[in-house]
Amino acid sequence: MDELSADIDAKWAVLEALEALYPWIKQFRSRPVRDYASRLFEAPASGLVPVVRRQALDKLLGVIRKAAVRSGLSADTAAEICRDLERRRVLQTGPHLLLLLDPEAYYTHIFSLLGLAAHGCSTYVSYAVSTVSLVERSRKGPGWLPVDGRPSNVFGLSRSQMVGYNLLSGPGSYRFEMVPADTGARGDVLAQLRDLLPSTPFQRPAHAIKAANQALWPKLFGSRCAFLQIDDEDIADLVADHLSGAGSWLRTSLLEEPALALNILAEIDRLAMGPWSGWLTRSTDFFWFYHNGKRLPLRLAAGDLIDPSSGVKVAGFNPSDIGARLSDRTLIPNFFTTMLVVSMLPGVRVLGGSHQPVFYPLMRHVVHRALEVTGMAPELRQALETDDVSGAWGHRVIECGDDPLERCLANPISDADAVVGRLGAAPLAEACGSLKGFVSDPSWMELHRRLGRGTITAADDEWAVN
């Protein structure tokens, strides 16, 4: 009972912390979770649209259109996806690149469908982070999938082939092997699962999972909502597109004007030393370096991106070097750069969790502050100040113990509407379950303590551009 009480107390501490930083969430605590989803998928209020924002949105839509066609969707569907996103300007960015049958991904997509359905949308774009390891913790992560209550090795890789290796590893040959981790797994369930997944080999694990999800979507949710999943390779193409034009703001301001990039990094370092520490750090400077299947950090020094472990220059911090490296996938944008080109510049609301609702506003503060210090882009600065709910908690909102694979095999498609309806009717505070992804993270308890002591508040300058 004491352990149960502690878990309940921890859950309410997380909710209280979220409501302290996002006071408007409190009104949804006892309302159906579909109401909360509907609010998040409302189109952001129209405000100032500087030229840089319009250009950035056009570039984002261009990359999404190409990704849709490449994934096998028709040109008409691709155009409809772009029209919906341009009008809605809301993007689910929470889940890592997991198979749709992974409960963490499945229930987040149900949450998104609740929000989209409330506004009559028939298309859905989800950005899935793929700069993650195949194994994130013991038998968890994109390389593993719970099948019949037991972990199965998605690609049948050995531990040495998985630990430290990334979803963007390649080129190689990756197949959906679905190898059980123990002898108790039911072979019939695994065989049924394999029949749902592509049988061809893929060069990268990320390619395999995206292709599988495109095939799984209609089996799980029918065809009334067209689905597109983009990942960090698409973002690499987006950044490359920004850098290819002589009039690109990202090119002229971030890469060709050293003061902005250096001020951004200095602001991140300042945050890491202050009361908001622990939420936004310099894991890498603007890009990740991919070498021998592994993701390595970089540091910006004297106009070059340096591998800090060896001191060797990887690329010059200039459009030609970075563009070439983005094309051959030896450089991939980090999450900061990603949020710059998919949200801050184009004015798109992003939904995430469990860290994103805290660190994304801090990223926006960093950009706003660096622009202010350098005296650059006053119209973009004003747009950041006036954005309507620029980001929010929209991933890990629904927690449910039902197994998506079991449901899919027993009742493919037929009960999807019933599941969405049942989960959408639950009050938000119940739908989120135990918030296990939050309460198991000590940073949330520390955040609650800092808010309680007044060490940090929603009135802080760091939170003002939220």
Can you give the mean pLDDT? 93
Task: Please give the number of β-strands.
Answer: 14
Q: Which structural category fits the helices and strands?
A: mainly alpha
Radius of gyration: 22 Å
Considering DSSP H and I runs of 4 or more, what fraction of the residues is helical?
40-55%
* Residue windows where pLDDT falls under 50 for at least 5 positions: none
Number of helices: 21
Q: Order of strands across the biggest sheet?
A: 1-13-14
Q: Strand portion, in percent?
A: 5-15%
What is the makeup of the main sheet? 3 strands, parallel
Shape: globular
Defining traits:
three-stranded antiparallel β-sheet; mainly alpha; 466 residues; 11% strand
Summarize the structure in short.
The protein has a domain at 2-132 and 204-246 and 337-464. 50% of the residues lie in helices and 11% in strands. It has helices at residues 2-21, 33-40, 51-70, 75-88, 103-118, 159-162, 187-196, 205-221, 232-244, 249-255, 258-273, 319-327, 335-344, 356-374, 378-386, 404-410, 416-425, 428-431, 436-439, 442-453, 461-464; strands spanning 90-92, 123-127, 144-147, 150-153, 179-180, 226-230, 287-291, 294-296, 299-301, 304-307, 312-316, 331-333, 349-352, 391-393.
Set out the fold topology.
Blueprint (H helix, E strand, L loop, with lengths): L1 H20 L11 H8 L10 H20 L4 H14 L1 E3 L10 H16 L4 E5 L16 E4 L2 E4 L5 H4 L16 E2 L6 H10 L8 H17 L4 E5 L1 H13 L4 H7 L2 H16 L13 E5 L2 E3 L2 E3 L2 E4 L4 E5 L2 H9 L3 E3 L1 H10 L4 E4 L3 H19 L3 H9 L4 E3 L10 H7 L5 H10 L2 H4 L4 H4 L2 H12 L7 H4 L2
Parallel strand pairs: 1-13, 2-6, 13-14
Antiparallel strand pairs: 3-4, 4-5, 7-8, 7-12, 9-10, 10-11
Helix pairs in contact: 1-20, 2-5, 3-4, 3-9, 5-17, 9-12, 9-13, 11-14, 14-15
